[in-house]
Design a protein that fits this description.
388 residues, alpha+beta, Butyryl-Coa Dehydrogenase, subunit A, domain 1, Butyryl-CoA Dehydrogenase, subunit A, domain 2, 3 domains, four-stranded mixed sheet, 10 strands, AcylCoA_DH/ox_N, flavin adenine dinucleotide binding, acyl-CoA dehydrogenase activity, FAD
């Protein structure tokens, strides 16, 4: 690790690394082929306390820094990105909005089960015309007799259709707000929709290129009624709340990318030392060991980037730009390392039972999910003082 870990953090890193190598990795190909979420593995992660790492103990959590969640996500992603994103999204997108913006009653109701890994939450933001452009949100919610009545569709929603999914936080248009210049804008509000609410339909899962074990569905909401008390945060603060959610989430997502980059690096080193061609290990060829040296430089940079962002987050310092830098650097590192590792493995790197092949399929989404590369560049440019 680039950052000097405390004794407790090093113990966590070692524990999750061992779990990833002995439990997650051996099962990865089987569940990838079945395209199933391994509930036994998720349950064990819950018993390890991973889903509760950043939450206070009064809500069933571990009371540890956000940095520690990132350590766990990084180690899991070395072995299986799908398992890592299940944890990252379950905490960052499912539970964290309830903790950050929820009432005390909402926290008491939802956080203990989410922190124990007995339940998963999802974050319903993206639509066909909305995601990076939140102004394109078409899902609506109106008050009727003390209930929110919600109509719309969401897409690409992680953890939304598992058998332990218990809630989806939906962003919806609840009216119009007036800007300082007198113009109007859509009033976006976040609302908790419990799983199984009549009118909420979890559509069939996507046929994805990668992340086959991760649960991802489109959602349809037709006259979904939930109590007015399911408002999450202040009415009209949905945009600000989800920006905070995404900023924090990008830090853990960057750790996931770093883990993928390290996983590819470790596989390439192992293979280059044992694979013999023309009478000697291929790692003795300068092109191969130089390629691996570049992979090391990428993985190292990715790790330092998320660690810097996580430390700033935990210390209450501004971290928006650092989160986007970490996401940009680490996702590109993961993609490049997956490509190079597959090339080093040759034909074996194209076989799905090989971890490198799965990393290669999985890595592309890292440059898209939780804000595309282009969005990260936009955020960084704006933080540097540039405006369109």
């Amino acid at each position: 690790m680039g950052h000097h870990l405390t004794e407790q953090q090093q113990a966590l890193s070692d524990e999750v690394r061992d779990f990833a190598d002995t439990v997650v990795a051996p099962a990865a190909y089987e569940y990838d082929t079945k395209r199933e979420l391994p509930y036994d593995i998720i349950a064990e992660m819950g018993r390890m306390g991973l889903f509760g790492l950043p939450f206070p103990k009064e809500y069933g959590g571990q009371g540890r820094p956000y940095f520690d969640l990132c350590i766990a996500v990084e180690q899991l992603a070395r072995a299986d990105q799908s398992i890592a994103v299940t944890l990252e999204a379950g905490v960052g997108l499912g539970a964290m909005p309830v903790y950050r913006s929820g009432t005390e009653e909402q926290r008491q109701e939802w956080l203990p089960m989410l922190a124990r890994g007995e339940a998963l939450g999802a974050f319903g933001l993206t639509e066909a015309d909305a995601g990076s452009d939140a102004a394109g949100t078409k899902t609506t919610a109106r008050l009727d007799g003390g209930d929110w009545v919600i109509n719309g569709t969401k897409q690409f929603i992680t953890n939304s259709g598992t058998r332990i999914t218990r809630l989806v936080t939906i962003t919806a248009v609840t009216g119009e707000s007036t800007r300082a210049d007198g113009s109007t804008a859509k009033e976006l509000t976040a609302i908790i929709v419990p799983a199984g609410t009549p009118g909420l339909t979890v559509e069939p899962s996507y046929d994805k290129v990668g992340w086959h074990t991760s649960d991802t569905h489109p959602l349809t909401l037709r006259d979904v009624r939930v109590p007015e008390a399911n408002l999450l945060g202040e009415r009209g603060r949905g945009f600000a709340n989800f920006i905070q959610t995404l900023d924090e989430g990008r830090v853990a997502f960057a750790a996931l990318c770093s883990g993928a980059a390290h996983g590819c690096l470790e596989e390439a080193i192992r293979y280059a030392k044992k694979r013999n061609v023309f009478g000697h290990p291929i790692g003795q060829n300068q092109h191969i060991n130089f390629t691996i040296a570049r992979m090391q430089s990428r993985a190292h940079s990715a790790q330092l980037a998320w660690q810097d962002a996580a430390l700033r987050l935990d210390r209450g310092l501004p971290f928006k730009m650092q989160a986007s830098l970490a996401k940009l650097i680490s996702s590109e590192a993961a993609m490049a390392n997956a490509r190079d590792a597959a090339q080093i493995f040759g034909g074996y790197g194209f076989m799905n039972e090989n971890a490198v092949a799965r990393h290669y399929r999985d890595a592309k989404i890292l440059e898209i999910g939780e804000g595309t590369t282009e969005v990260q560049l936009m955020v960084i440019a704006r933080e540097l003082g540039f405006r369109p």
